[in-house]
Amino acid sequence: MSRIGKKPIAVPADVDVKIAGGEVAVKGKNGELKLAFHPNMQVGFDGASRQITVQRPNDERQNRALHGLTRSLINNMVVGVSTFFIKKLEIQGVGYQAAIKGKNLELQVGFANIVKLPIPAGVIVECPDQTHVNMKSADKHAVGQFAAIVRGVKPPEPYKGKGIRYAGEYVRRKAGKAFGSS
After folding, report:
1. Which residues, listed in sequence order, are joined to residue 36 by a DSSP beta bridge?
2. Are 54 and 11 in contact (CB under 8 A)?
3. Residues of the chain with CATH 3.90.930.12
4. What's the alpha-carbon Rg for the chain, to the nearest Å?
5. Under DSSP, is residue 81 helix (H, G, I), strand (E, B) or coil?
6. Which residue from 76, 73, 130, 75 is spatially nearest to 100, judged by alpha carbons?
């Protein structure tokens, strides 16, 4: 039995859950999320105990893999509609900066042109200053994917550490040529 899959998901009082036709809809103060789960999985909601359970029909390899995955995806939806998932990015480098213009995130990170990235629906992006970007969303996948796309524009390089990194990320530094020639 899957350790993660067999755990019931506790649903807070301010979250509404609807399961119908192979789809789970979760609605809370931060929005509404839907997930179409695999037809082999059985998802049930007990209104009295406010718990969601996920069950699998047998112990085939695919069903074992889907069991924990389905439970984790539904749990992330329940957590997301009650509290936002947050990703913070830092920009380091002389002249490197970020700004929000309309529905785009504009990055000046050492290229000849300004990099413009469209902000996906459901993701809230804030720039408290020019070197920090905060993202939050009820959808864990959406905020994580957009943060990875932004970081991928200019990942931190190992010699001076310039680039876009997650807040608190450790960048391993290299000595460079000047250190070895002395």
Report:
1. 23
2. no
3. 9-82, 85-166
4. 21
5. helix
6. 130
Which segments of the chain have a pLDDT < 70?
1-2, 179-182
The 10s digit of each residue's pLDDT in 102-113 is 999 999 999 999
Instruction: Output the pLDDT for position 178.
Output: 72
Phi-psi region of 22 (alpha: psi -120 to 50; beta: other; left: phi over 0): left
Contact (CB, 8 A) for 130 and 90: no
- pLDDT for the residue 163: 95
Name every residue whose Cβ is closer than 8 Å to that of residue 25 and which is 6 or more positions away in sequence.
17, 18, 19, 32, 33, 34
Q: In the CATH hierarchy, which fold is given to the domain comprising 85-166?
A: Outer Surface Protein A; domain 3 (3.90.930)
Q: Other CB atoms closer than 10 Å to residue 10's CB: what's the count?
A: 12
pLDDT score recorded for residue 182: 54
**Does the 9-82 domain belong in CATH 3.90.930.12?**
yes
pTM of this structure:
0.89
